[in-house]
Design a protein that fits this description.
By secondary structure, the chain is mainly beta. The chain has a single domain, classed as Distorted Sandwich (Beta-galactosidase, Chain A, domain 5), CATH 2.70.98. Helix content is 10%, strand content 42%. The strands form four sheets. The chain has an eight-stranded antiparallel beta sheet. It has a five-stranded antiparallel beta sheet with strand order 1-2-3-4-5, with no helix packed on it. It is globular, with a radius of gyration of 21 Å.
Length: 333
């Protein structure tokens, strides 16, 4: 075996260090951060209002936050093989937004504002480019970091009605764990603060989830996808409005089984039920005493929800959904 001269070895190490430094600054002015293995990356496009998450150089999901959107949301969300797991907008529910978080609320002294239906609140109903009267606005990103295969980031948002009247402040915290083969996990926490006065939540029991996920038709129950919850419930009949800790939606496409699971963190109030649909909708409700019943959050108080989103290979069994949920509860995921 040939032994390289010391000077050559040192030069190679220096070049590797310089390459690593370049990766942590910018590629075409877009990469914010990259791990030493380049396994997980965050790429920002402020002009488009997008933050892209890549795993091993492939797009996993994108945070959509530009001024042209009614609600900041996550789309696309891709399976380990790169297939679309969610859909951003579709008939007959064009207000669905892949993975999103919204509600219907009433700020003291103001009218009711449905951020869930923000799409329909354009100031000029005949002009599809006119601004939204009610919307959730991205304010800024919080500090971001990447260590190994884990990325952490956060966002500040504000829920506004009548174009610029603030109703609620929102803070999101995301932790993304990347694994070999394209699997990944998103730990997502939402915190709403009634900064501008008392806020009453008036959503009915049918039209909300915290958060909402709209599965792509190719993974839906209508096209052979399987809905299964932590209690053994199967399909919409066995999972809708039923208490559970998690729900999995998976399907086999072109001979390859893949799926998405929503975990409800143990800190969330229990028992709570879930919304599910065979056409591809799922998400956790609030606890029963605040599910479909008006309740108030006093000025200065907060309301929180924390979930995990597991994007996995295989079905609910081979994807080790129950095992990974326990790891999530134990702080090991």
């Amino acid at each position: 075996m040939q032994v390289l001269p010391r000077e050559f070895r040192e030069t190679r190490l220096l070049l590797a260090a310089l390459l690593l430094a370049a990766l942590t600054t910018a590629i075409d002015g877009n990469v914010i951060l990259a791990a030493d293995s380049a396994r997980i990356e965050l790429r920002s496009d402020e002009a488009q209002g997008q933050l892209q998450v890549l795993i091993d150089g492939r797009e996993a999901l994108v945070y959509q936050y530009g001024p042209q959107v009614d609600l900041p949301h996550y789309y696309p969300v891709r399976s380990p093989s790169g297939k679309l797991l969610t859909i951003q907008q579709t008939d007959p529910y064009p207000h669905h937004r892949s993975v999103w978080f919204a509600d219907t609320v009433e700020l003291a002294g103001k009218r009711k504002a449905s951020f869930y239906n923000a799409l329909y609140s354009r100031t000029d109903a005949k002009d599809p480019q006119s601004p939204f009267r009610d919307h959730v606005r991205h304010v800024e990103f919080l500090p971001q970091s990447i260590e190994g295969n884990v990325a952490k980031l956060g966002m500040k948002l504000v829920w506004e009605m009548d174009s610029n009247v603030p109703v609620l402040d929102e803070q999101r915290q995301m932790r993304i764990v990347a694994w070999e083969g394209g699997e990944y996990f998103i730990d997502l926490a939402f915190t709403l603060t009634a900064s501008y006065g008392d806020v009453t939540f008036v959503s009915d029991a049918a039209h909300y989830a915290w958060p909402y996920v709209r599965i792509h038709p190719q993974f839906s129950g209508d096209q052979g996808g399987k809905l299964i919850n932590s209690e053994g419930g199967i399909g919409q009949k066995g999972t809708h409005n039923q208490p559970a800790r998690w729900i999995d939606y998976s399907n086999t496409i072109e001979g390859q089984a893949e799926g998405l699971t929503i975990f409800s963190h143990g800190d969330n109030p229990y028992p709570h039920r879930w919304l599910t649909r065979e056409y591809g909708t799922l998400g956790p409700r609030r606890a029963d005493d605040r599910n479909g019943k008006p309740f108030a959050v006093k000025k200065g108080e907060t309301l929180q929800q924390r979930v995990g989103i597991l994007v996995h290979k295989g079905d609910v069994q081979s994807g080790r959904v129950a095992e990974r949920y326990q790891q999530y509860l134990d702080g090991k995921l």
